[in-house]
Amino acid sequence: MDFTLHELACLDAVLSEGSFQAAALKLHRSHPAIHAAVKNLEARLGLNLLDRSSYRVRLTPQGEAFHRQAKTLLGQAASLGAVCGQLQRGEETDLRVVVGDLTPNAEALGLLQRFFRSWPSTRLHLHFEAIGGPWERLLAEEADLILHHVDKSDARFEWADVCRVELVPVAAPGFLDVPFRRDLGPEQMAGHVQVVIRDSAQTPGRDYFVVKEAPSWTVADQYTKKDLIVRGMGWGHMPLHLVADELRSGALLSLEGRHFRRSALDIVAARLRGRPAGPVASALWSFLAEAWEARV
Predict the structure, then answer these.
(1) Which of 109, 188, 286, 289 sits CB 3.0–4.6 Å from 160 for a disulfide?
(2) Cα separation, 111 vs 231, whole angstroms
């Protein structure tokens, strides 16, 4: 079918503005030009799209069906124009961010939401991975940036601090079959179920805080792990921000002592060192670094 986007835009403007004159003002065209564009469109289609019998023009039933599809096409054309503008400015149309399992979701997602409000034409591809998964995706160049902990001495990574997370060994009251002591060690815990997070990396690395002799249940995320521990079905190390309320209320007890200690990890924004970054990725990097500096 031989019609132009200009003709579709003229039809849409007449309908949205209510008259040919108002459409002409909106599109910065003359009244005769708008009228001719709509008449040409109707002639090409062999359809009467507009009912001109009243003061305010309106669609015929055929026009309503056609206009629904025309609006979709005009929206796609506008999106394509925005993409072309981005490409001309050198801006990325897509960014891939991976969030690690220990990263506080509320904080991380809040920062990403605030940032991408200022870059609405760049599509955020957000993925959640556990333990070695974020590093694996970044090293395979399947992510532009990760929010996770890294080995800060690893020269492959460039990093900027985002927040700090404390990990605390916890269990529900009554979970242990022996009185809790500060010298509680792996031997006493070997008979108790430990809840551990499944490494989402294709090639899993080291285990963290795992008692090798103990029976274990493996879960995919920290929220399922917490649920099992709160129900008294296992024990394990949990990020403090997820269990602080339960520790205060007594729904969970800390197992901190000589052998099971509280530890802290720096959650960072990390990217591959030396890899070129576009303007949106660079702006996101600066935004995250500034958010940390404002906090400290």
Answers:
(1) 289
(2) 32
Helix then strand count (H, E) for the chain reads: 10, 11
Angle, helices 31-45 vs 5-17, to 10°: value is: 120
Question: Which residue, among 95, 136, 88, has the nearest Cα to 277 in the 3D structure?
Answer: 95
Reference 90, options 276, 287, 278; nearest CA is 278
The tokens for 247 are: 């520790």
Same domain, 83 and 113: no
User: Does residue 56 sit in the same domain as residue 124?
Assistant: no
Rounded Cα distance between 191 and 184, Å, is 13
Spell out the alpha helix ranges (H) of 118-219: 133-139, 186-189
The DSSP bridge partners found for residue 268 are: 148, 161
Give residue 234's domain range.
165-264
> pLDDT (tens digit, 9 = 90+) per residue, 143-202?
999 999 999 999 999 999 999 999 999 999 988 877 777 777 778 888 899 999 999 998
Give this prediction's pTM. Answer: 0.70
The reply to whether 144 and 101 lie within a common domain is: yes
